[in-house]
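look at this:
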Amino acid sequence: MSETTIIAMGSAGDGVALAPDGARRHIPRALPGEILSAEGRLLRESPERVDPPCPHFSLCGACALQHWSGAAQSEWKRGRVEHALRQAGFAEARVTLGHVSPPAARRRADLSILRATDGSLTIGFHGPQGVLAIPECRVLRPEIMALLPRLAAALRPLQALRQRADAAINLLDSGPDILLRLDGKLTPVDIQRLADFARAEGLKRIATREGVAAQIASVRHNFGRGVVAPPPGAFLQATVEGEAAIIAAVLAALPAKLSRGALIADLFAGLGTLSFPLAERARVLAYEGDPEAVAALDAAARAAGGRVSAARKDLIRQPLLPAELAKCAVVVLDPPYAGAAEQVAQIARGPKPHLVYVSCNPVALERDARTLREAGYVMTSATAIDQFLWSPHIEAVVGFAPPKPGR
């Protein structure tokens, strides 16, 4: 009988085994060290295997690692960041695990909605067998979960929801903010129903891709001293605790001697998650490509007193050039999943500021860190932050100092 031994954990959270021909096989929900039969039966179980805390684990596609002990997951994720940095050329890299977000802490959700032939609605996560209604979730904030049955009831009579839709819910400081992506056009009756639902639930805003459908009051979210009115569906860090850990790690990675008059470039600034905390240390130039996000950031920056200046720029297609970066003492980058290859290349070519890189993808981090290493940068700190509980995703904040003059 042929047996399969799991030799490692893959980047998507599945077990990796070597086939007889040397090919790598990926086996969902298998753990390193386990042995499986040819039929897939577990012959030897890892001591790190645990009972999944959620009863929906086998059906829901949202969590990949609930069957693995928390300590083993955290070490694996921390190790992924450390491995990326060492592969990039920082052979002595040491990564600290700075934070693990607790259960029931995730404040944003992307949900699928499916209408059955009898008109009933299912709202939940898109699992392996389709949209799965989840009566409870061990990851999402309770406020979001409590809203879902009432949201489903409010959406059921909408003519604009024909077969499929999506809902993005952000839990802002002003309360839940909903963006609907419907497969039909809202009628006046639909709009009235959404407005009635918003009033009944105390929701400030419900929007669709076509615009705001119901606005009962203004929305707000605080980043340090900045009070931002986020556009519908805006990006937020997944948890309050994770965001605080990222901010703390970024501030700790700044050079010790930094005058309040110095200039920090905050690249891929979003709504100003880092811009406003950074402004407590120095003046900030915040660059963001999304027009709605940069408008919200700019309005908040003006109201906060001028320590942050916001500018719109697509840094993927038009990165800041060395001449533009020369005035900056520090550059902070928080790029999207694909990283910032073009911008990092420009940083490496010109006058070299201190750099703080916030990464959500170890593969992109390895590539960009290699460019910095080849340009003479020295790694000064590295912190892994796990705010995606029971998933393979990991974030990192890495500090880099420029080469000393003459090197």
Remarks:
- The domain at 71-102+236-401 is CATH 3.40.50.150 (Rossmann fold).
